[in-house]
DNA sequence: CCGCTCATGTAACTGGTTACATGATTTA
DNA sequence: TAAATCATGTAACCAGTTACATGAGCGG
């Protein structure tokens, strides 16, 4: 809870240049990978991801790429096939350095964190359930992970070929699943689930 | 990318009752654990968490608890010690069932996902760095995990005593760290880092 | 009495969401 | 030719962010 004082009513003189959001940087990366590519391609790539972090909605992506273009991180150019309009984007040199700065090192504070797991968030309050509800919870959580596994594999099959780093992402997904299963196992075994 | 059609200009007749956000439900849980407790306590609990998911800012929490109270999920009552104002909240029965519904099962879609890891997001684009930058990246990532470990331990020491389920959360944190270290190791060993 | 923590908020903004809308092209 | 998918957007909304602000109580 920081409290950085500032002269009331005034905006800082130094260019504010609002920090890029996590999604903006991620999109920068996706464009970089698919150069040149359209906003729609970005949306598709986001939508097929096994992560629920972003919704890939048109209302998020179109204004976002427009923003990045205005800032000079992307350059877009219209291309039409027949009567179909299509605007394709590539990274500018500034866009590439913004991407590299985000990837790090150094990492910004948002990256220094435990992973976010919605199941963990919920588990924290399992004391609010009855013992039998807790058993059902663990069972359902296992099924959820099975479901996630299908998504991870599907994603992996589609991407591992193009790019060696995609394999690392799939590996992360698989190890993630293994670890969360082990975690569920530990606590089904422990007394907390009783 | 769903496209559920709706008669233009009209709002659905069925009570919209906007779904509670993840943060709202999480706060419901925190209040439940600390009943009765003030918004400030919630903020502190959020702030000391090793997760960067939420900022615990006053601007988020005060309006949020007010919202939950208006909806009848929390009931607050003023208490003053001397001249110091303090508003303490507890869950209403409806608040408790909202909490239980969120914990699940069943899980809402947001919970059916791989964990979100900012390092994984960045790793996806490591091809944009030079090999030596990648080596530095892996090194920095390891240090980041050391830092996170300190945070997790600190949190664990503070909470494990009160509540058996807090231990599960700490366990999750520790297993998470172990898995991400192993992941970094695998890929430092692999050819992708070269 | 100074500075820190406790405690409660508000104001302005903005990024992302849901939902709408439109028209071209492909496929069954 | 109807339905699905490609492709691009916009409008309204709102949750959460940053920053400001205030004042009580406490330790040195």
How would you describe this structure in keywords?
homodimer; 194 residues; mainly alpha; three-stranded antiparallel β-sheet; 9% strand; disordered N terminus; DNA-binding
Description:
- 2 copies of one chain form a homodimer.
- Chain A has helices spanning 22-34, 39-47, 58-70, 93-103, 118-123, 131-159, 164-189, and strands at 37-38, 74-81, 84-91.
- Chain A has a 3-stranded antiparallel beta sheet with strand order 1-3-2.
- In chain A, a hairpin with a 2-residue loop joins strand 2 (74-81) and strand 3.
- Helix content of chain A is 55%, strand content 9%.
- The longest helix of chain A has 29 residues, at 131-159.
- In chain A, helix 1 crosses helix 4, helix 2 crosses helix 3 and helix 6 (131-159) runs antiparallel to helix 7.
- By secondary structure, chain A is mostly helical.
- Chain A has 7 helices and 3 strands, in the order H-E-H-H-E-E-H-H-H-H.
- Mean pLDDT of chain A is 88; it is low at 2-16.
- Chains A and B meet through helix 1, helix 4, helix 5, helix 6 and helix 7 of A and helix 1, helix 4, helix 5, helix 6 and helix 7 of B.
- Chain A binds a DNA duplex (28 and 28 nucleotides) through helix 2, helix 3 and strand 3.
- Average pLDDT across residues of chain A? 88
Q: Count helical runs of chain A.
A: 7
Query: Largest chain-chain contact?
Result: A-B, 79 and 79 residues
The percent of residues in helical segments of chain A reads: 55-70%
Weakly predicted, low-confidence segments of chain A:
2-16
Residue fraction in strands of chain A? 5-15%
Biggest beta sheet summary of chain A: 3 strands, antiparallel
What's the end-to-end separation of chain A, in Å?
Answer: 38 Å
């Amino acid at each position: 809870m920081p409290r950085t004082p500032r002269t009331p009513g005034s905006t800082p003189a130094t260019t504010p240049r609002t920090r890029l959001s996590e999604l903006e940087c991620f999109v920068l990366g996706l464009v970089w990978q698919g150069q040149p590519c359209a906003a729609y391609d970005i949306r598709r790539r986001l939508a097929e991801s096994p992560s629920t972090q972003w919704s890939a909605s048109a209302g998020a992506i179109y204004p976002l790429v427009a923003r990045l273009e205005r800032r000079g991180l992307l350059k877009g150019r219209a291309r039409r096939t027949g009567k179909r309009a299509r605007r394709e984007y590539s990274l500018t040199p500034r866009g590439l350095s913004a991407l590299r700065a985000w990837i790090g090192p150094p990492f910004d504070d948002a990256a220094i964190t435990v992973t976010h797991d919605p199941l963990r968030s919920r588990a924290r309050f399992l004391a609010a359930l009855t013992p039998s509800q807790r058993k059902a919870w663990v069972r359902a959580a296992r099924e959820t992970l099975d479901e996630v596994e299908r998504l991870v594999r599907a994603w992996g099959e589609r991407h591992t070929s193009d790019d060696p780093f995609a394999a690392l992402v799939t590996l992360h997904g698989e190890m993630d699943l293994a670890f969360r299963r082990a975690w569920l196992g530990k606590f089904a075994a422990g007394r907390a689930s009783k």
